[in-house]
Amino acid sequence: MPNSLVFCSPAMPGVPLLDRLGPVAAAGFSALSLMPGDVWTLEGDGMSEQDIASRISDAGLRVAEMDCAANWMPHQQNQGDGGELSLLLRGLTAQRVIETAARIGAPSVVAVDLGDTPPSLDEAATAFAALCDLAAEHGIRVHIEFLPVGGIRTLSEAWAIVREAGRPNGGLTIDAWHFFRSGSTLSELAEIPGDRIHTVQLCDGPNQPMADLWTELMTARLLPGEGAFDLVGLLRTLDHIGSAAPIGVEIFNSRQNDQPLAQVAQDWATAARAVLDKARTTA
Fold first, then answer.
1. Which domains does the chain have, with CATH numbers?
2. In the Cβ-directed half-sphere of 65, how many Cα atoms lie within 13 Å?
3. For the chain, how big is the Rg over CA atoms in Å?
């Protein structure tokens, strides 16, 4: 539905999936994204995918997407320095993540590249086409989430990969922080077919970025409406191109560390709905 909201789980990784469900539903979210580890942890504890899916459904929620595949290009197989993060990313392989999404009933999968070096268009498009083909076997869509601190850094770079790959189930994630901090523009977004926008993630930020973008990305995003991002313009552009993508809320902010999830979820929902109402109210 137009004003339905998705709770983006990666911003709250310390809260186990089953503990997430009640507060998220109570705040009025209709769906949530899952991390592959959410499913793998519960399966390791002996829960079946049917039991996990039932618990989500019984809470009045649905699975919006699986976030994310991070090892789907050849160069990503050796990414990082062997530390905890790089090992995690290497484990998020195309096949393993797609199969997990299929087991749990996720309709789509986010694809990211957190490498330091941008891939060539040929490498990225070939790999993305293969990822889309694997996902299509399960009726799953795939969407690239570009990050200004990653290998695929802007909307134009991500869209070039999707276009070159030429797969009907391939598309884009529009994360507000990545969009505005990468220097991507609403005019660029307005040229993309709406059905290629597969998911949207809202947050806000100050006019001037922090010196360390990675720190801002992971600890200092703001609630929608708290910052200077043109979220109203973003949402109106998405509506203009006919996007029917789910609207998610994803806010990494260290001030949430000591807040109960019920408060965090309610704050996210209230702020996001205020911006949605503003964007969709005709003056």
1. 5-279 (3.20.20.150)
2. 29
3. 18
Q: Give φ, ψ of 58 to 5 degrees.
A: -65, -25
What pLDDT is recorded for position 84? Answer: 80
Q: Which residue stretches of 59-167 are H helix? A: 84-91, 94-104, 121-136, 155-165
Tokens 């911006």, residue?
275
Largest Cα span, the chain = 54
Extract the tokens encoding 92: 């998020």
Q: Which of 199, 222, 205, 217 is nearest to 268 (CA)?
A: 222
Report helix, strand or coil for 26: helix
pTM for this prediction: 0.96
Task: For 208-253, write each residue's pLDDT tens digit.
Answer: 999 999 999 999 999 999 999 999 999 999 999 999 999 999 999 9
- Tokens for 73, please give them: 């290009």
What span, in angstroms and rounded, lies between the C-alpha atoms of 94 and 111?
9
Specify the pLDDT at position 85: 79
**In the prediction, which pLDDT does 3 show?**
67
Helix (H, G, I), strand (E, B) or coil at 31: strand
β 5-7/31-34 pair status:
parallel
Residue from 196, 161, 186, 162 nearest 236 by CA: 186
- Dihedral over alpha carbons 12, 13, 18, 22 (to 10 degrees): 0
Residue 219 near residue 253 (C-beta atoms within 8 A)? yes
